[in-house]
Amino acid sequence: MIQLIRGFRDILPGESERWQAIEDTARAVLSDFGFREIRIPILEATELFTRSIGENTDIVEKEMYTFEDRKGDFVTLRPEATASIVRSYIQHKLYAGDPFHKLFTTGPMFRRERPQKGRYRQFYQINAEVLGSDSPLIDAQLVFILKILFSKLGVSDTTAHINSLGCPVCRPAFKKALIDHVVGMDTKLCVDCARRKTKNPLRLLDCKVPSCREAMAKAPDMMAFLCPDCREHFQRFKTALSVLGVAYVTDPRLVRGLDYYTRSTFEIQTNALGAQNAIAGGGRYDGLVKALGGPEMPATGFAIGLDRLAEILKNDTELQTGHPKVFIAAIGRESREKAFEWVCRLNEKGIPAEMDFGDRGLKAQMKRADKLASRYVIIVGEKELSAKTAVLRNMSEAQQEAIPFSMLIKMVIERIANAS
Ligand code: HAM
Fold this sequence. Notes:
The relative contact order is 0.12. The protein has 15 helices and 16 strands. It is α+β, with helices and mostly antiparallel strands and 420 residues long. The model has no long low-confidence stretch (mean pLDDT 94). Strands 1-5-6-11-10-9-7-8 form an 8-stranded mixed β-sheet, sandwiched between helices. A 5-stranded mixed β-sheet has the order 13-12-14-15-16, sandwiched between helices. The longest helix has 18 residues, at 136-153. The chain folds into 2 domains: 16-170 and 226-317, BirA Bifunctional Protein, domain 2 (2-Layer Sandwich), CATH 3.30.930; 323-419, Anticodon-binding domain (Rossmann fold), CATH 3.40.50. The chain starts with 15 loop residues before the first helix and ends with a helix. The chain binds histidyl-adenosine monophosphate.
């Protein structure tokens, strides 16, 4: 039997309803905050990601699904969405006229990481990007949106971690200080850190390997290197979060895994998921539009990990929908044809209804209705056919009534409307 590829998953009915509920809530919240949807391709030119995410990142060095297509062009399954959104913003000159845009997109991303709980090779993100403003108030608004969304979904036990990574004025001195700090420490650094220590020294700060942690325990702190503009920007970010009532932890080790970040970065972390503790991450990327060939244009955004969020909400029964409201138990071929018409009429009116298409007895059908957690069951057999009256049973109250065929659909709709 052909099985799916390692790190890839099927999201089956029973789980997909929860995913839908999360996506619907996210769409509603993002729309309230003025975001509009953008849909971007899954496959892009490889160069888009090498130039934006950075040559010396884990993603570009070892995680991208890159291949040569039939014409010899190098293409990549997108490992994230920010680069594509920026490409689209530039390509369609969305900056002409009013450069300020609030955009969101959802969909699958691909990274060939080592699969484990909360980490997949195809995973899904809800992405929100604000282009055209350098205001720290927007950064605060993004963290606020995440807080609102998670609380609407009933996800508690989250902490907002924030940091500033400075700008091209102040970051080079910080990088140099980090490189100087690890001089002579080669034996303590893991293979990855030893390799990237000069090209991407920031990543040394969030390496989880114990000996690297030890090596970096007394490493320099970006806060001490921020230029006056970045310092003020970060202060205003923090003040705006406080005004909005968002609790946060300043985390100087929050360097993020993509190279395009400048100034504010943030992550929403949770204790509910073990090692993969980030359910959303983002930050400012003021240099990216220009770096990809557009005008000088500040921007900021976040991505939520949908797989991780769905995992946390696994036990939330409120999000387990998908049960039919009505099950029609029909005995005999003629009754089944009647039932079929009613199912279609109810479905047409937006009421989930189901029936058995096989030739099973009443007991077996009632058992199935129970399993499907249907609120009502309509029973129709020979006796009902000759009387032109069906039995409507309210399953939770164990009550039933006889209803003439001619009024059945109307009355079922009424009962359901009154009950909800
Ligand atoms: P990221 O931190 O790489 O940022 O990913 C954002 C979120 O996607 C993570 O916090 C996590 O919840 C989820 N995620 C990442 N990798 C995986 C995986 N292998 N399996 C399951 N979930 C995963 C970005 O992608 C940036 N583009 C975010 C951004 C938008 N920054 C500015 N704008």
